[in-house]
């Protein structure tokens, strides 16, 4: 079941942001692609709420927690039938008449110029291979940003929130599940804030602010675990971390990766970024409980300290990467971004 769900999530995380980027006007693209992430964090919040209300209803509660996701999946399947194809994909497939109709519906004022720009942006044809030297910059940007996104520890914290709270001394059961809801609410609120600001202040500014904030809150969380200070303080430190993550990397990653690859290889680039993201997710979330479990067996709960110190260092490195390497893409057409990256 997890494998089947993973295939679906992996596919949507590739196609969703790419599709939104291709139908969005440049001046609104950031907030529209960020809406993809907003819906993800709303789903996470509903999952936390759903789990909380199902705690204690019987030994099969965990089955209901997993099975209830079939309802939004069916709604999603129905709604997908209502959306048009990407006009950029249609134009590159030679279906220009259909592309023009959709561009008109999307409010494009100069349709002929838009079609020309799409064709001119294709270097070497639609089936060009991503892994060539001219695409080295966007490849490096996408891979490193996707890696740092998971090296923040975000999904380890979301997946094992209840376990982390128990490690900090919060009683197991419904109370631990309740603490997770605070994380879900912060995730939604600060993703919405990021959506309102991403096209005004830019992707890079949000990432730098987010990295700095995450270093502070992750570092304080490590200190709490290392010093033995317990309990509910961890909840507020993790809420602070989630706030800065949602405001920056959570909202920006899918926007940025969908923007930096040219039309001819965008689907391959999006797949590369997404596969890197989920591979790192699998590694981190596999190792986290092992590290924590071994430290508990040894009689000293040091796993939380070492894990959060590692996440802190990674976010410090991410700050340097964003500051020194990443370009700003706000307000630029997908084709102009391609030119600025030197992809001719």
Describe this structure in words.
By secondary structure, the protein is mainly alpha-helical. It is 76% helix and 0% strand. The protein contains 16 helices and no strands. It has helices at 2-23, 29-54, 61-67, 70-80, 87-92, 96-105, 111-120, 136-151, 154-159, 161-167, 174-201, 203-227, 233-260, 266-297, 303-324, 334-340. Helix 8 (136-151) packs antiparallel against helix 15 (303-324). The radius of gyration is 21 Å and the shape is globular.
Defining key terms:
mainly alpha; 16 helices; 344 residues
Major sheet description: none
> What percentage of residues falls in helices of 4 or more residues?
over 70%
Oligomer: single chain
Q: Whole-number average pLDDT? A: 82
**In one word, what is the shape?**
globular
Low-confidence parts lasting 5 or more residues at pLDDT below 50? Answer: none
Radius of gyration: 21 Å
Q: Measure the end-to-end span.
A: 44 Å
Summarize the helix and strand pattern as letters: HHHHHHHHHHHHHHHH
Please report the number of helical segments.
16
Q: Strand-residue fraction?
A: under 5%
Number of strands: 0
What class do helices, strands and sheet pairing give? mainly alpha
How is this fold's topology laid out?
Layout: H1 2-23, H2 29-54, H3 61-67, H4 70-80, H5 87-92, H6 96-105, H7 111-120, H8 136-151, H9 154-159, H10 161-167, H11 174-201, H12 203-227, H13 233-260, H14 266-297, H15 303-324, H16 334-340
Helix pairs in contact: 1-2, 1-13, 1-14, 2-3, 2-11, 2-13, 6-7, 8-13, 8-14, 8-15, 10-11, 11-12, 11-13, 12-13, 12-15, 13-14
Task: Tell me briefly what this model is.
By secondary structure, the chain is an all-alpha fold.
């Amino acid at each position: 079941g997890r494998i089947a769900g993973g295939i679906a999530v992996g596919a949507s995380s590739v196609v969703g942001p790419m599709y939104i980027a291709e139908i969005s006007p440049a001046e609104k693209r950031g907030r529209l692609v960020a809406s993809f992430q907003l819906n993800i964090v709303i789903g996470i919040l509903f999952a936390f709420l759903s789990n909380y209300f199902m705690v204690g209803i019987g030994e099969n509660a965990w089955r209901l927690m997993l099975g209830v996701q079939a309802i939004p999946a069916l709604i999603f399947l129905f709604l997908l039938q209502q959306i048009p194809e990407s006009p950029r994909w249609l134009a590159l497939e030679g279906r220009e008449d259909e592309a023009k109709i959709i561009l008109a519906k999307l409010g494009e004022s100069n349709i002929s110029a838009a079609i020309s720009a799409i064709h001119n942006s294709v270097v070497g044809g639609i089936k060009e291979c991503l892994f060539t030297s001219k695409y080295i910059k966007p490849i490096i940007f996408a891979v490193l940003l996707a890696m740092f996104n998971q090296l923040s520890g975000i999904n380890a914290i979301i997946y094992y929130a209840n376990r982390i709270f128990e490690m900090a001394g919060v009683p197991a059961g419904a109370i631990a599940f309740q603490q997770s809801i605070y994380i879900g609410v912060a995730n939604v609120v600060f993703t919405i804030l990021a959506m309102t600001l991403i096209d005004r202040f830019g992707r890079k500014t949000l990432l730098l602010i987010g990295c700095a904030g995450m270093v502070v809150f992750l570092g304080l969380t490590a200190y709490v675990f290392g010093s033995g200070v317990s309990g509910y303080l961890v909840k507020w430190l993790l809420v602070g971390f989630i706030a800065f993550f949602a405001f920056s990397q959570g909202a920006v990653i899918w926007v940025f990766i969908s923007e930096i690859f040219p039309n001819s290889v965008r689907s391959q680039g999006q797949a590369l970024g997404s596969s890197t993201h989920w591979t790192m997710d699998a590694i981190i979330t596999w190792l986290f409980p092992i590290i924590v479990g071994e430290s508990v067996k040894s009689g000293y709960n040091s796993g939380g300290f070492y894990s959060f110190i590692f996440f802190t260092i990674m976010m410090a490195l991410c700050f340097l990467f964003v500051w020194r390497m990443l370009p700003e893409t706000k307000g630029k057409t997908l084709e102009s971004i391609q030119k600025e990256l030197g992809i001719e």
